């Protein structure tokens, strides 16, 4: 039996959420070092924390799979369900939500940067590439999280005034907001981690 239009949208969003929920950071950290990435470093189950705390190979794999799951969700929605435009963006957004609030991690998750980036790249590659170039330029003179936040804001301005009509704004603004919130949260986590390392170093020096 062929699915109705609204049923395709529901199925697409559900598939997007499930794919986004797969915690590849946790999976690869366990496989490579039997480490629970949620308990080390910034405690964020994302590619950057895996790269720092577990290694380059699992970090790269995490990044590839986290980006891939957002794109895979949208490809499925287009080719198998016949969705287009606004609804494909909805499926991509569902994948980002799944990454940030994974059903497999009791509705906790990563910051969604890799998955959000992949979704935005799929939707508007030219603007995404401009934003990425800007990000790396800013990162040379500013902290990484600040660079992410500024890039997200610039991307949003581009979406509003250049690329998409009004009916895309709500979903895409939501994705950009997730990026910004994730960057701020990661900044706080990095600050806490540096503070813990500083205290550990002080205790080590005091023991001599």
UniProtKB/TrEMBL annotation:
Q: How does it sit in the membrane?
A: Multi-pass membrane protein
Task: Give the EC number.
Answer: 2.3.1.275
- Record localization: Cell membrane
Which GO BP terms sit in this record?
Answer: phospholipid biosynthetic process
Residue spans crossing the bilayer = 6-29, 86-107, 119-138, 145-164, 170-189
What are the protein's UniProt keywords? Acyltransferase, Cell membrane, Lipid biosynthesis, Lipid metabolism, Membrane, Phospholipid biosynthesis, Phospholipid metabolism, Transferase, Transmembrane, Transmembrane helix
The record ties this protein, via InterPro entries, to: G3P_acylTferase_PlsY
Pathway, per record? Lipid metabolism; phospholipid metabolism
Provide the reaction this enzyme catalyses.
an acyl phosphate + sn-glycerol 3-phosphate = a 1-acyl-sn-glycero-3-phosphate + phosphate
Q: Name one GO cellular component term.
A: plasma membrane
Single annotated GO MF: acyl-phosphate glycerol-3-phosphate acyltransferase activity
| Annotated family | Belongs to the PlsY family.
Checking HAMAP family in the record gives: PlsY
Q: Describe, as the record does, how this protein assembles with itself and its partners.
A: Probably interacts with PlsX.
Stated role: Catalyzes the transfer of an acyl group from acyl-phosphate (acyl-PO(4)) to glycerol-3-phosphate (G3P) to form lysophosphatidic acid (LPA). This enzyme utilizes acyl-phosphate as fatty acyl donor, but not acyl-CoA or acyl-ACP.
Please identify the protein, giving its name as recorded. Answer: Glycerol-3-phosphate acyltransferase
């Amino acid at each position: 039996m062929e699915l109705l239009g609204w049923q395709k949208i529901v199925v697409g969003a559900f598939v997007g959420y499930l794919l986004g929920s797969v915690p590849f950071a946790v999976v690869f950290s366990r496989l490579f070092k039997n480490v629970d990435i949620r308990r080390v470093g910034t405690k964020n189950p994302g590619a950057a924390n895996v790269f720092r705390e577990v290694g380059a190979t699992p970090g790269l794999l995490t990044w590839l799979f986290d980006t891939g799951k957002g794109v895979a969700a949208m490809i499925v929605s287009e080719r198998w369900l016949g969705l287009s435009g606004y609804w494909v963006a909805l499926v991509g957004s569902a994948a980002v939500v799944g990454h940030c609030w994974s059903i497999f991690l009791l509705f906790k998750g990563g910051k969604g940067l890799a998955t959000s980036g992949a979704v935005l790249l799929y939707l508007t590659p030219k603007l995404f590439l401009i934003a990425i170039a800007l990000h790396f330029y800013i990162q040379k003179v500013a902290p990484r999280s600040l660079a992410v936040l500024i890039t997200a804001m610039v991307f949003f301005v581009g979406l509003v005034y250049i690329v998409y009509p009004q009916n895309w704004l709500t979903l895409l603004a939501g994705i950009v907001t997730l990026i910004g919130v994730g960057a701020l949260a990661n900044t706080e986590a990095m600050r806490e981690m540096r503070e813990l390392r500083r205290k550990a170093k002080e205790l080590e020096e005091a023991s001599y």
